[in-house]
Specification:
Radius of gyration of chain A: 17 Å
Order of helices and strands of chain A: HHHHHHHHH
Strand content of chain A: under 5%
Order of helices and strands of chain B: HHHHHHHHEEH
Largest sheet of chain A: none
Number of strands of chain A: 0
Structural class of chain A: mainly alpha
Oligomer: heterodimer
Radius of gyration of chain B: 18 Å
Largest interface: A-B, 45 and 43 residues
Number of helices of chain A: 9
Number of strands of chain B: 2
Helix content of chain A: over 70%
Amino acid sequence: MGDYIVLAISCILINNILLAQYLGNCPFLGTSKKMETAIGMAMAVVFVLVMAGIITWITNKFFLEKLGLEYLRTVAFILVIASLVQFVEMFLKKSIPALYSGLGIFLPLITTNCAVMGVCLINVNEEYTFLQAVVASFSYAVGFGLALILFAGVRERILLARVPRPLQDTSIALVTAGILSLTFFAFKGMV
Amino acid sequence: MAKSLAQEFVKGLWDEVPPFRLVLGLCPVLAVTKSVENGIGMGLATTFVLVCSNVLVSSLRKVIPSKVRIACFIVIIATFVTVVELVMQAFAYPLFLKLGIFIPLIVVNCIVLGRSEAFASKNGVFRSLLDGLGIGIGFTLSLIALAAVRELFGSGTLTIWVTPIQIFGPSFKPFTFMIEAPGAFVCLGLMLCVMNFLGKK
């Protein structure tokens, strides 16, 4: 049990997917202008990432490794993720319309979110067991949401500040992300 | 199409240079630019995938039904990424280890899918080839630029191929902040600022 808590903390804070592993930065900058969109994206990522983590782990263990097809991993994973996203979208539209309209346009965008693919690959590279993979996927997703929501809060404040023209928009956002990343950097060496 | 063939190529080098102007595909940009060598490797790998997928997508653009086009593009891109992965494992293994999961992640690099969708699926084969080449080289150059700044101040060296070249000599105290994650964000932000400043008319 203790191991899983350590794994979770290290995935959420120390190896934060956005700020320490540099994965998923396009949605990080793209959806952080407003708090609402940031929350929507964070929820969608938690939802899809956990499912993708489980399914790609199974795919890898029972299909690719059994058949000796590890070299097809990239192709297989991206197909699994793309069809999973499509499936989740259709399922939610039919059965939980409230959640579907909440997640809205963020679901299809997740296919090209490298955080999802990245976590699936990390799970395989680190040779996690099934339970470890589930915990890691969930914690990475929570870390993603945490960083995204914090960042959106900061960015809303920046709108009120006077920023020199060349630094405006993406440029100041990246510098802010750097400072946020510095705070997460302080967690290094905690575990 | 008002643009000439040469313009098609050149636009990728400045007007639409990917990480700065389009703000796409930031993850590899931030992650691999710890040394110039990594930047060159990543840039060339991405260029190869871009050119090949652009050519294939544009030659198949009349065959692919528009409803399933994204899935088709992704399969095409993933195929070429696998090719790059296997070739690098065979011929540049140390570099492959350094770039780690960012080689398979070229699949989800928004630049590649973005060019397939926005350009190659609407234009001819030769134009798409030039477009892919231009964007790819622009991407490589910006990776090299960012990596050069970060490596120079972060470890006082420049690594073009395998062995680091000392620039500041042994008395230089590395500014390690630059090669860590926070430095990557700040450095890219400031470079974007410089580009905005220069590009302002």
